[in-house]
Amino acid sequence: MMAKISRANHFWSWTMLLFSCILCTRASSICSKFSLVIHKGHCANLSSTLPYFVNFCSAHNGTMDERCCLNADSLLGLDLSSCNLHNFTSATVTGQNSNLTVDIVLLALAPNNPKLKLPSPEAFIGQINLQQLLMPKLIGCPTGWSEQTTSIAFDNDFDAINNDTEEFIRCLPPPNPCLSDDACPVNTSSQCTLTGPGLFACPCQSGWTGYKCLRSSQPFPYPIFGIGWAGSALAACLIGWLLERRGIVKVNSAGMVATVQDDHSD
């Protein structure tokens, strides 16, 4: 009997261990302070080893936390290189800390993500401050993004870092579409709102709704309408009563109103 119990406990122990390993390979911690995890991926190193990313963080007075560059309570940079990524969407990385301010300026999706597919522009929705994206050379930049080849202030050794062994390029986001006058329909009550790099929406301004924001969302002013209608009816009745009193009009027994005319004989 004891042998059966021992084998059962041994079986469940191995089952739980296997289940834990599966979870570890599907969700890897990338930022301990803000409990950020990457889903369906496994990062080769706990901390960032990408020189470009480390230099960026130092230039922005940030501090490294595993694969995150932090500035106070803001997340400035995220290094997802060598994380076995196949796809990147807005749900790839999630956090459990409500105090986190997502203000990502640099996102590294390369190098060493050989199976990564080209992300769609909608994958970066919500990242309105994203200024640089590191992508594999073989994939290139997402639609609308442009490759930057010149060196920048915080990285004078970019050419040495970005060699054939690293295989990543820097991508710059599309221009802000809200700077264009024709982003949203003209002569409407909508306003252009940036929702991500090269992405925008045209929500209605306060007090307007419907197609092209042409319908007022304010409730119908029934009290004002009722008072105006009652006042007009009362004024009409008062005028009729005065005219009848002066003999200008006369109401017969059938309720018909007739004009009274004086007969003058020559």
TrEMBL record:
Signal peptide feature range: 1-27
Transmembrane segments: 222-243
Keyword Isomerase: no
Domain of life: Eukaryota
EGF-like domain boundaries: 202-213
Stored InterPro entries: ATRAID, EGF
Swiss-Prot/TrEMBL keywords: Membrane, Signal, Transmembrane, Transmembrane helix
Protein name: EGF-like domain-containing protein
Species name: Macrostomum lignano
